[in-house]
Every structure is written in structure tokens, then in C-alpha cells.
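Thread: "does anyone have the structure for this chain?"

Original post by V.I.:
We have the sequence but no experimental structure in hand. Need at least a predicted one for the grant figures.
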Amino acid sequence: MLKYSCMKRILITLVFLALNFTPAHSAVVNVDLEDIIEIGLTQNQDIKIKHLELEASKKDIKIANKLQNPEIQSNVVIGNVALGNCSQAGIALPIEILKRGLRKKTAQENFLIKETELKQFEHNFKLQIMQAYFDVLYAKSVYQIQEERLKLFKSLVQITTDRQKHSSYEIDNLKADIQYATQQIAVNRAHSDMLARQFDLNKLLNTGNEDVMYDTKEASLLEGDWKFLNFQIPDYDFLERTAFKYSYMIRLSDLDINKSQLELEQAKHQRIPDINIAGGYAWQYHRNANPHYGGAFVGGGLNLPILYNFTPDIQKADLFLQRSKASKKAYEHQLKHQIFHAQEYFNVNSSIIPTTNSILYKNNNQ
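Reply from O.Q.:
Generated one for you, C-alpha cells below.
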């Protein structure tokens, strides 16, 4: 047990040293919330990957709209059999019937899904940056308050030491020293937590530039007029109407339903036979004819869905359509619950905002 405790202390010490010394290798750049969101949206590696995926889905539209390539065909007879049969050389072209248009519409719907997913990712990314930004400010505020408390305890130690000796002089000095040492630990923890929040912010940004470490422009929440503290949340009906109108997940659900419907139609159209048309030059050898007989040939064909009629494909597509519709209903129910829970959580916490605001400004004025 003692060995485990020692190892735990060593590990905590190493983490603390890493947090303290790593930033020295990077240039710290202080930016405000608006600029750091712009940096994240333009330099984040995950967003760049999403843009590449969107470009790839745009190419899928052209791929889905492709025509079948023609085939060169020949049938040459050799020997005595050529005297009574003709040889042929020409081109055959497979033609899809009522399939290419649906395939293209499905690819276009998939592109809209990818585009909406990118917008949703960017929106959520903005919220994550805002959360991480204010986490840094909160950690800085705690660190600043703990440093102010450390100064008070240091003054208390000095006052206790300078007082005239009395019966409880040693005990008072010991208490003051313990309080000061305890506060030093609290300051170190607050500093470590502040650095950890700064690392979390830069990890979230994921710009790929290790030579720069971004930090908040404000020193803490104790400075500046944070108007969002006085924000009044709208009523539930307004929140529900707004969420159902602008929610990216609902948009994605609708697009997914449209895509599933197109895939179902596409599966049904697999039963429509495709045709092949062919044509070219034909000739025949003849003993008494010089030159030989020559002419042309035309041909055609159908690929009949007899051995396999695509019933499993249709059933599978119909199941995916049902799943898409069920997923939308499930999300709408979940969204209503989340709105109600978030509103209640905000209302409960908003009651302590005036007290928190008063404490912040009181510490700022001190």
C-alpha cells in the first residue's frame, strides 16, 4: 500500500512538471473568442478531412451518372465452315433502362447529407471551442483567487510571527504555517488545472502547428463585462419550434429518409431488363465470288431477371426506409426531452448568477 502511494505521488509530480514546462517550447498567442473560433474552423485537421470527404462525394455524383462503355465484338469463322457462314466485327453498347437517373439522384442526396454533416460538425465544433475557452478563463479565475488567498495567508504568517510572544505563540505560528502551506498546494493545483485546460483547448483546435499555443486574451473571468451572465432563456414552446426548424439532426433525418426512398426505388428498378444493341460489318467467303460477300449486321439482347429477381434487395431497402423513419421519430422525442432538461437546468443555475456575479466583481475590485 505504501509502495502504491509513493508511485502515485511520483506520477502526479511528473504530470505536474510536464504541464509546467511543456508550454515553454511553444509561442503563446493570446486571442479572443471570435478569433480562436475562426482559427479552429480554418486550421482544424478534422474539418479539413471533412471537406475532402465532401469533395469525394461530389465526384460520386458524376460516377453515378456514368454511361456504360461500348464493347468491341468479333466472330470470325475459319476453314471450310467459312464457306457457308459469315464472320462479324462490330461494337456492342449496353444501355441501362430507368436506372441511371435514380442512381444520380441518390448520389446527390448523399452529397447533401455529407454537406449537412459538415455544417453540423462545424456548429458543434464552435460550441466545443466556446466551452473550452471559458473553461480556461474559469481555471485562470480560480488560480487568480487562490493566489490572492496565498498572499493573505502569507501576511497572516508575518503578523503571527511579529506578534509578541505569549502562551499560544508557537501554536498560532504553527497554524499559520500549516494554512500557508495548504494554500500553496491549492495554488499549485489551480495552476496545474489552468495549464491542463489550456492544453485541452489547443488539443481541440488541432491545428497541426506545434510551434504555437493559443491562449485566451482575457486574464480571467474577473475582468470584463460578461453580458451572457444576464441572458434570459426563452419559453419552452419557442425553444421547441426553433430546434425543430434549425436542428441539423432533423435535417439529416429528412435527407436520410429521402435517400432511403430513392434506394428503394432503385432496388425495384433493378427488375427492369437492360438492353444491349450491337452492329458492325459482316462478310462471307464464297468459292465463286471475288471479292467475297460483304454487308452489315445488327443485334440486340435483354438481361432478364429470372434466376434472381432482386426481391432481397427490395426488402432490404424497405427495411432501411423504415429504420430511417423510426430514427427520426426517436430523435424528435429525444430532442424534446433534451430541451426540457436543458431549460430546467438553466433555470436552476440562473438563480445563483446574481450571487456569482457579485462575488466576481467584488474580487475584481479588491
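V.I.: this helps a lot. The first strand starts at residue 27 and ends at 31.
O.Q.: and Residues 21 and 134 are 23 Å apart (CA to CA).
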